[in-house]
Amino acid sequence: MDLTRVLWEQHDGVGVATINRPERMNALDVSTIAELDYLAERTWNNPSLRCLVITGTGRAFSAGADVKEWSSGDGEVDLDADGWVGRMHRLMSRLYRLPKPVIAAVNGVAVGGGCDLALVADLRVASTSARFGEVYVRVGFCPDAGGSFLLPRLIGPTKAAELIFTGRIIDAAEADSLGLLNALVEPDALMPTAMEWAERLANGPTVAIGLAKENIRVNAGVGFEDALRNERRAGSLCGATDDHHEGLRATVEKRQPQFQGR
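^ that's the sequence the OP posted. Answer follows.
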């Protein structure tokens, strides 16, 4: 695929996808979503890629749906599988289930679908310039890119209801106080900090991290015994990996393990 809206870089085991539509505040049109989905799939299928970072250029992480193409001429939302909603849902599902860690480096405004794109990441590093908002009610709509699922699980249903019902935009400090962020840094430290996180994760036991990610997601909706069964299954898979054997050897030899992601 020719990338025209998203910049792509690879640094060792880290892939960095940068939404590059600063003139549109990195709004998510169908083409941008397709490029992000392609890169997420590429990360999934490439064993040498062990972590994905998503960020934006300019003043925005993403201002959400590109309203110029978000609806048809009669104002109805395009629910077709190849329209905005269908493509966005495929992207969000792929990122949610990606068996590798995803980091959102939130450089600026992240609202609507852009906020949801940040929420679906496993970790969020934000600049002090970042802003977050589930702003759908401002256009008489409700979250349609996973926000009503993701936000309550991150900050609790009461506060999530407040932000979704009012469409209030919060600054980075409030987002941090609510527990949305893993790190809050000055703008010039955003990418170095995000890459430090990413490189650490990319050098980790990728299979184990992926299974831990799966269990964090799945076990939030099951009972304790089912969660234990899921952990037992994951443990049996981890136990068969080269990285587990390397980790045990490194412990015995009193050295840092050299994980290979398999």
